[in-house]
Design brief:
The structure is a homodimer. By secondary structure, chain A is of the alpha/beta class. A 7-stranded mixed β-sheet of chain A has the order 3-2-1-4-15-16-17. In chain A, helix 11 crosses helix 12. The mean pLDDT of chain A is about 95. Chains A, B: It catalyses: guanine + H2O + H(+) = xanthine + NH4(+). Chains A, B: InterPro entries: Amidohydro-rel, Guanine_deaminase, Metal-dep_hydrolase_composite, Metal_Hydrolase, Metallo-dep_hydrolases. Chains A, B: GO terms for molecular function: guanine deaminase activity; zinc ion binding.
C-alpha cells in the first residue's frame, strides 16, 4: 500500500469544458499526492491492492469555488435586503464591518464562517476581510487550519465612507505590506490578495500604492466593477480623466498586471469587456446579490463569447446564500431573463455551463483546480442524493442537476481539498 | 382547564395588511376551538390557569400558503430545467404524469409529497393532480389524514397532448362529477376544485361542462393564464372569437363565477387584470417557475395596484423549490428586476408584502386563514432561529426576514393547522 495514493469508487461527473459534462458511471478515480492521476472503469492489478474509498451509490464532483465573499458581512446575511447598494452599505454593512476592530467578535463570527463554508461544500474561496489587520490575520489562520483554499484580502479604503471605517492612506499601505510579508509564504492553501474596496472608496494615492505592492510581491488583486448604475455614475464623476471604470483600475496596475478578479460587472461596457479578455481579468458573477440589491443582471453570455474568464460568487452579504449550488441556479435563472431582455439573442446558460463556472471556471484562479483531468488538485465533494428521489433511470447529469436545484448541505457526505479530507471545523 | 383553549407564548409576527408587520414581543396568543381569540402582553387571571405552550425564544408566524402545485410532478423537481414550457411539458412532464395511472406509484410518491409539504411549513395548498381519478382520491385522502388544508383537482384535458394522457370528453366530465360528489362534504380541511389544465388542453365542450359543474356544486376553479408568449399566441390561434385568454375562461363560467385562482399571469393584459379584479379572480404568482421555464416576470405590482387578490405559489415542478419562504425571496428578486425594466416605475416588493402574499394573501382563498387577527384559523409555524446568528439587537421583523432568506425546514419546530399540531406524516 502506498500512502500517497487514494482511490475513490463512485459516479464521477465534472466539466472539462463548459459545453458538456464528462460522466463515468461506477468508476475509479486515482489520486496521487493530492492530484488526480486518472479515471478508470477497471483498476490495473497494481492499483487494486491500494485502499479504495467506496462511494458506489454516490456522486463524486469537484468542490465548489466562490470568487467573491465579504467575510465580515457574514452575520448580516438575510438582513436589510429591502435596500439598494449604496444605502445598504451605509445602514447595514459599514456598521457591521466596524465590529471587526474587536478581535473577540471577529473570532466568534469567523469560526462560524469557516464552519459554514465547510458545510456548503466550498473548497476554494476569495475573501474580502475588513480594514482591520488583526481580524484579517485571524481569518487567514482559521482557513489555513481548516485546510480550505482561500485568498484573503485586508480591505483598503480611505475616502467616501463613514469616518469609523476609513483608513489613513499611508497606514493602509503599510499594514497591507506587512500582511503580505507575513503571509505570502506561510501557507500552501491560503494566500493574501490586494483588495482596494472599489474606486469610490480609494484615493488615487491609495490605488497607486496598492498597484505597486501587487507588482512588487506578485500578489493577485480583487475589487468591484460596475455593480450598479449609481456607482458607475459616481466613478465617472470622481474620475473624469478616465475612459471608463476599468480604466481607473488599469491606470494603477490593478487590472490584470497581476492576476485579478472583479466582482459583478453588471454594467461593464463592450470596451471594458475586451480589456478584461486582453488582460486576463476574471469576472466574478454574483447573480443573487445583483438581484437582492436591485443592481441588474450581468450579461454573462457576452463575457463568455468574448473569452473572459468567469467564475461564480455569492458576494455575501449582498447575497444571502452561501452555497455555490444555489448561485448556479440563480445564474441560470438570471440568464433566462437576460435572454428575454435581449430579444432572445443572449442564449441562456445551461446546467453544464454554470457547473463549469462554479468549479473549473473560478477554480482556474487558484491553478489546476475545479476539474478531474489528470494533474488537477483533487478538490471534491461526495454527494449522497438518495433522499432526493429515485436514481433509477436517471443519468448522472440528471442526478447532478437535481442535486444542484433541490439538494443542500445534508447531501454532502465528505469534502476533499488537494486530496485531504476536510474535517468539520469546531465552532466554539 | 378548558380543552378547547390553547395559549402560545412567544414572539408573534404577522401581516394583517401587506404594508407592515404586526409584532408582539414575548406575548400570548390565545386560541379557542382552533381560532385566534386574541393576543395579549399579559394574561387575564382566568386564562392564566390554562396550559401555556412556551415558545419564548421563538417566532410564531402564520403557516405558509401555496396556491399552485402539480402533485404528480413532485418526483421531477430539479429535472429538465434547461427547457422552455412547451418542450418541457412534452419531454418531462407528461410522461411523468402518465405514471399516476398506477396507484402504487402514486402512493409511493404522494406519501413523500405529504411529508415534504409538512416539512417546509406549508399549511394550505392548492393542487393539480393528474387526469387519474384513483390517484386523485388517494392524494385527497392522504392530505385529509395529515390534517393539512388543501384544494385538490382532478386534471381535465382532452386535446393537444400526447394520446396517453388525453381523456374522452364525456368520461372526463363524468369522473370529475363523481369526484366532486364523493368528496365535497367529506373533509373539513380538504376540498375538491375544478381543474381544466389550460385552454390549449381543453375543448370548448369540456370547458363548458366544467363551468357547469363548478356552478352546479359551487366548487372553486383553478387553471393557468398567460404564462408564456408562445402559449398566449397559441390560445389566440385556437380561439380567434375571444377577446383575450381570460375571455375564454370567462365565457365558460370559469373565471370568477365561482371562486377562481389562475396561475402565472405573466403576460396578462390591463383589460384582463381589470376583469380579474372585477370578478375577484386570484392570481397565483410563481416567480421561481417563471424563471426556470424562461417565461418572464409577472408585473405583480400592477396586479396589487388594481386590487387583484394575489398569493404565492411554487408551481412544482416548473419550480424546484417546495418552500414558500424561498418563493418569497424569488418574488422580491423578480420584482426588483421588474422595477429596473419599468424604468423604476413598478416599485419592488418588500418583505412585509411578500410575507403577506405568502400567508394572508393566498390564505384568503381558504377563508379566514393566514393572519392572527381574532377569528382567524390558527395556522402557525413555530420557528427556532437561534442557529441563524445572534438575535440580540434584532427586531422581530429582522429575525423573520433573516429566516425567510437563510432559514430552512430545520428551523421549523412545529406546525399547526386550525389549532391542531400536525404530526410528521409517515413516508413508508
Amino acid at each position: 500500500m502506498d500512502d500517497n495514493i487514494k482511490i475513490f469508487k463512485g459516479n464521477i461527473i465534472f466539466t472539462p469544458t463548459k459545453d458538456a459534462f464528462k460522466c463515468h458511471n461506477n468508476a475509479y478515480i486515482v489520486v496521487e499526492n493530492g492530484k488526480v492521476s486518472g479515471i478508470y472503469d477497471n483498476l490495473e492489478d497494481k492499483l487494486s491492492k491500494e485502499q479504495i474509498i467506496d462511494c458506489s451509490q454516490m456522486l463524486i464532483v469537484p468542490g465548489f469555488v466562490d470568487l467573491h465573499f465579504h467575510a465580515p458581512q457574514f452575520a448580516n446575511r438575510g438582513l436589510g435586503l429591502d435596500k439598494e447598494l449604496l444605502p445598504w452599505l451605509e445602514t447595514y454593512t459599514f456598521p457591521e464591518e466596524k465590529k471587526y476592530e474587536d478581535i473577540h467578535y471577529a473570532e466568534k463570527i469567523y469560526k462560524r464562517l469557516v464552519h459554514e463554508i465547510w458545510k456548503v461544500g466550498t473548497t476554494r474561496i476569495v475573501f474580502f476581510s475588513s480594514i482591520h489587520s488583526e481580524s484579517t490575520e485571524l481569518l487567514f489562520d482559521l482557513f489555513d487550519k481548516a485546510k480550505i483554499g482561500a485568498y484573503i484580502g485586508k480591505v483598503n479604503m480611505d475616502r467616501n465612507a463613514p469616518d469609523y471605517i476609513l483608513e489613513d492612506t499611508e497606514k493602509s499601505l503599510r499594514e497591507t505590506e506587512n500582511f503580505i510579508l507575513k503571509y505570502k509564504d506561510k501557507s500552501d492553501l491560503v494566500k493574501p490578495i490586494v483588495t482596494p474596496r472599489f474606486v469610490p472608496s480609494c484615493t488615487p494615492e491609495l490605488l497607486e500604492g496598492l498597484g505597486e505592492l501587487a507588482l512588487k510581491y506578485n500578489i493577485p488583486v480583487q475589487s468591484h466593477l460596475s455593480e450598479n448604475t449609481h456607482e458607475v455614475a459616481w466613478v465617472k464623476e470622481l474620475h473624469p480623466e478616465s475612459l471608463n471604470y476599468a480604466d481607473v483600475y488599469s491606470k494603477y496596475k490593478l487590472f490584470g498586471q497581476t492576476k485579478t478578479v472583479m466582482a459583478h460587472c453588471v454594467y461593464t461596457t463592450d470596451e471594458e469587456i475586451e480589456l478584461m479578455a486582453k488582460n486576463h481579468v476574471y469576472a466574478a458573477h454574483c447573480p443573487h446579490s445583483n438581484y437582492n440589491l436591485s443592481s441588474g443582471i450581468m450579461p454573462v453570455r457576452k463575457f463568455l463569447n468574448t473569452n473572459v474568464s468567469v467564475g461564480l460568487a455569492t458576494d455575501v452579504s449582498g447575497c444571502h446564500e452561501t452555497s455555490i449550488a444555489k448561485v448556479m441556479v440563480s445564474a441560470i435563472q438570471a440568464s433566462k431573463i437576460k435572454w428575454l431582455e435581449t430579444n432572445r439573442e443572449d442564449i441562456a446558460l445551461n446546467t453544464s455551463e454554470v457547473f463549469y463556472l462554479g468549479t473549473k471556471g473560478g477554480g482556474s484562479f487558484f491553478g489546476k483546480v475545479g476539474s478531474f483531468e489528470p494533474g488537477y488538485d483533487f478538490d471534491a465533494l461526495i454527494i449522497d442524493d438518495s433522499n432526493l428521489g429515485n436514481i433509477e433511470n436517471l443519468t448522472l447529469e440528471e442526478r447532478l442537476q437535481r442535486f444542484i436545484y433541490i439538494g443542500d448541505d445534508r447531501n454532502i457526505v465528505d469534502r476533499y481539498v488537494k486530496g485531504t479530507k476536510i474535517k468539520e471545523p469546531e465552532v466554539f
